[in-house]
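Margin note from the TA: students keep mixing up input and output lines. Inputs are the sequences; the output is the structure of the whole complex. Example:
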Amino acid sequence: MAAPRVLFVCHTGSISGAELVLLDIVEPFAGQSAFLFEDGPLAAALAGRGLKVAVSRWGQGLAQVRRDSSVLKVIPLIGRLLAIVVEVIRAARRHDVVYANSQKAFVLSAIAAKIARRPLIWHLHDIISGAHFGAMQRRVQVTLANLCASRAVVPSQACADAFIAEGGKPDLIAVVPNGLDIAREAKSPAEVRQELKLPAGPLVGVFSRLAAWKGQHVVLQALAQAPGVSCIIAGDALFGEQAYATRLHQMIDDLGLGDRVHFLGQRSDVPRLMSAVDAVIHPSIDPEPFGRTLVEAMLAGVPVIATDAGAASDILEAGRAGTLVPPGDAGALAAAIRTVMSHPPELAAQLTYADARARAHYGKAQMLQTISAIIDTTAGDVS
Ligand code: UDP
Ligand code: GLC
């Protein structure tokens, strides 16, 4: 069979974890197409991978509509959403298979693919639960998946379990862990710190976009209980979470952390920054669907302190490859930070184990091979 013609569909033009995964997935698909609901850095990045990129005339700004929004907020948008469905139908008819890379992309692609009679793969990067989606949204997603999707690719068992618990068909699921391929920083942490003008002394880092469920506020509360420890926070409010960013700045003033916490904004050199800190903190207060930052930290050779919710426990092998703390518990996080900063002797073995684990289970080549095979099979099933 000839290589299938694939249409990748994304709702956003911004680049967070799900889009970074997509940028890897499309590597073997140069010459194929991507359809984005809005313009943004993702369009250029996909074009840079050799994809033909089209952007909707109607979708600009839709990614900023929060995914837990009520039905009432969505009603005024229905005309634009239908116009996007029509655009996707037209594009889908020129392809053999549609690959939707997010929940919003999936919902509109499901309707479009059904009408265009094309098979649809949903790469579901979320844990479908009440923490992120309203009851109606969850029902719509799962019903459409059961009716319209050929496969639902998820990055972790936590995502699979949530999908099934909401009524999703288990046989749609393919668990494909995110794969990363990152070379270890060659320079010493001290050299990198100097070059990047990072603070001296005990230093931790958070490398998640700014969003309440990512839990940066808990890190600030913990720092108030960990004197002498500084923190860099990389990442921006990518999806309409500006109020949370403002709240974080306010907390820093209130807690008197101004000289210890440094906001770096959205960065493109996360692996380097990670290599310069004494610990990476992954503080999500809701279950994390995967958490690329966990694996990036493991590959950077830096201790990870993560909240024990969602995929983190699997990735860190229940604490063998990093430290797990209860979500939202600033006291426990502060204690873990103090322990790691004291450089306990067992840390070296943990780092070696974490590095080997990341390479064995979360490699990019494995992910690409599995997903390419799923795309081929799905296209082949109907052609
Ligand atoms: N990231 C980045 N620049 C930043 C902060 C984060 O490139 O300033 C990257 C980070 O290295 C990781 C991704 O964004 O690869 C976040 O993915 P993750 O799966 O951890 O969480 P998400 O934001 O997708 O929920
Ligand atoms: C989403 C999830 C994150 C996951 C990423 C890639 O953005 O929040 O946990 O790592 O997608 O699958």
